[in-house]
Amino acid sequence: MTMELSHYIGAAIVLAIMTLGGIYSGRQIKSSRDFTSGGRRAGSGIVAGTIIGTLVGGASTIGTAQLAFTDGFSAWWFTLGNGIGCLILGLFYAKPLYQSGLVTLPQLISAEFGRKAATMAAVLTSLGSFLSIISQFLSGIALITALSSLGPMGASALVLMLMMAYVIFGGVWGTGIVGVLKALLMYAGVGLSGIMAIRVAGGLEAFQTALPAAQYFNLLSHGLTKNMGSVVSVVVGVVTGQVYIQAIIAAKSLKTSRQGAWISMALIPLIGLAGIYVGMFMRIHAPQMDPVYALPVFVLTYLPPVLAGGILATLLVTLVGSGAGMALGISAMVGQDLYKVYVSPEASDRSMLFVTRLIIFVVLALSAAVTIGNLGSGILGWSFVSMGLRGTVAFAPLCAALFMPGKVGRSYAYAAMIAGPLLMLLSRWSLPPNIDPILLGISGPILIMLAGRLRRNHHAL
């Protein structure tokens, strides 16, 4: 299907709103600290906008509809896990993170376990975030190729340019302020799509009649351990995600940071629910289509043109913002924890701002190149692996740094950060397919850190 003039009018209206938000956000940047932590002036809306603007991307929308097309409600675990992660972030992690005053995850780990541990965390967690950007590129390519004559290469280049423009002039303020606007438009658009899917189908009963319940209406259709592994992967990915830590730190108060996390908790699962019904609707009415096109084709086919154009533009900005937010998180860690530590300790604020933006460009260009070599792969699959990898590296050391300061030796942190990814990788070949490798990848490092805690207690006796 092709877009008509009315579609472009709707898209232009949305993009104009986003552009005005981006221009305003760019004016908030006075220093590299404003760029990476918002100058600690953000309200709860900006905090929530930053979190939602990154978590609710192509994976949460296009990717959820894609998986729901084949698996139904088991596709909800990604956004449900994000909501649970935001709840835990606000309840347990916001206070120690905010009070630390540190900007990046490696800085938090360095303060407790030293520079070597911080370097390991920066490199390995950045790799996890890099994989998440690939899922956004896959979503963007699917959206653009579904609506235009561009091929995958051209679509990838367009997504790259949009991601750079989205964040490079706004940093956290770009992802936060535009994130608020985007969240409002996204929830209106995708939420309406979900409602329309139910209405056009003839009600909820129509889905239950047309689709097998065991496959499409069972949250645990992949098995308890497999689905729980997916939830654990997402939860630890949220807690250890650099951009979410930055959002908490950017708040003007601890109360504000918690409110932002809890707003995100309440809203994120809803977007997944809407995507599920769209995906299942397209399964019923277009069973032969490529599942990755379920959401964009539904919007283009069943919604009024101006509204559809606005929603499609919002989807594009959503996945662009999510990928750009991840790139911002990587740039903050690599710039602050590698470049400024090992390359140029005396770098000026102006120089660091340039380096941070340069890193964003390099990360996005590499992501585009890798995506081209993996066209057709599952969008949510990349997101689950990304969050799981970040969690296996950083979750246990971060918990020890925040909740057991001075109680675990550095060698245990090194061992935990190396063991986590290795256990996750090895278990893919050694565990039964119904058990998610993340369970071993997370439990192993936790046991190592607990062993370090017990050893310290033993020596203290």
UniProtKB/TrEMBL annotation:
Q: Which UniProt keywords apply?
A: Membrane, Transmembrane, Transmembrane helix, Transport
Cell location? Membrane
Q: What's one GO-annotated cellular component?
A: plasma membrane
Source superkingdom: Bacteria
For this chain, one GO molecular function annotation is: transmembrane transporter activity
TM helices/strands, residue ranges: 6-25, 46-69, 75-94, 121-147, 153-172, 184-207, 227-249, 261-286, 306-334, 354-373, 379-404, 411-431, 437-454
Principal localization reads membrane
Q: Which residues form the signal peptide?
A: none
**Mode of membrane association:** Multi-pass membrane protein
Family statement drawn from the similarity comment of this UniProt entry: Belongs to the sodium:solute symporter (SSF) (TC 2.A.21) family.
Q: What is this protein called?
A: Solute:Na+ symporter, SSS family
Q: Which source organism does the UniProt entry give?
A: Acidaminobacter hydrogenoformans DSM 2784
